[in-house]
Description:
The complex is a heterodimer of chains A (142) and B (145).
Chain A: H1 5-25, H2 33-41, H3 49-70, H4 81-97, H5 102-110, H6 115-138
Chain B: H1 2-21, H2 26-33, H3 42-64, H4 83-99, H5 103-108, H6 114-144
Amino acid sequence: MIETDWLWGxxxxxxxxxxxxxxLLVNGRVMGASGIIGGLIDGSGRDAWAERLAFLxxxxxxxxxxxxxxxxxxTHLSTNPVVIIxxxxxxxxxxxxxxxxxxxxxxxxxxxLSLRGIVATVFYILVGGIVMVLARHVLGWI
Amino acid sequence: xxxxxxAALAGAIFGxxxxxxxxxxxxxxxxxxxxxxxxxxxxxxVMGGAMIPMAxxxxxxxxxxxxxxxxxxxxxxxxxxxxxxxxxSSLFGAGWGLAGLCPGPALASLGWGGWGGLLxxxxxxxxxxxxxxxxxxxxxxxxxx
Lengths: 142, 145
């Protein structure tokens, strides 16, 4: 199993990119997860609310159904509520301040060599790595 | 109707891709960020794989100018690197490193993520509600400086 992980990563990645290509070429929109949900939350995406909501329904319901039938999935999320709440707050605040996350800035931005996408990705990976290493190896939180 | 149908389809494929690639498993994401531990290269394959269809799609988009369903394609690029982009991405990275979830996988794994997954999503929504005010404040500070 271990040696095929990269292959599943590649296949899943192609599906993620395929979904983004479909959303761009058919609907004419950039597929950014934080922007799609964030626009519904702060009202900035009121004009395309039905499209956003439909995207979120597909995103939540279809993988849930697949796992219900096939089983075998686990998020292995921390059970420490402080880590969960702090993580969620930072992800929500940061992605909306930066106007994008891993899908919008990472997948959709870098693939068009967007300067903003590249800068955003460098910072979230760099800070993510530092916080991860500190929290695990120095502070022992996770 | 067509718009919502294709949006739901894109969401579904995106979610299944996140599941198949292992990105809904926080140990994979944190294993990739943890360069001092047992490093997991999967995330690089996921990112690389996702770039391939999208790089082609941007080339097609530049030629078409209009999407299949009639919307003008978003071809103009915002090139402004400002404090909100750098600070926001850094805050996002901190949360991502801490919990191992970013917005897409947090939504995709809601069905099996239990109370923890739900709590993460609720906190993320609260952070998103707070963001416009924080963003405006950062803009005011950087413009004054």
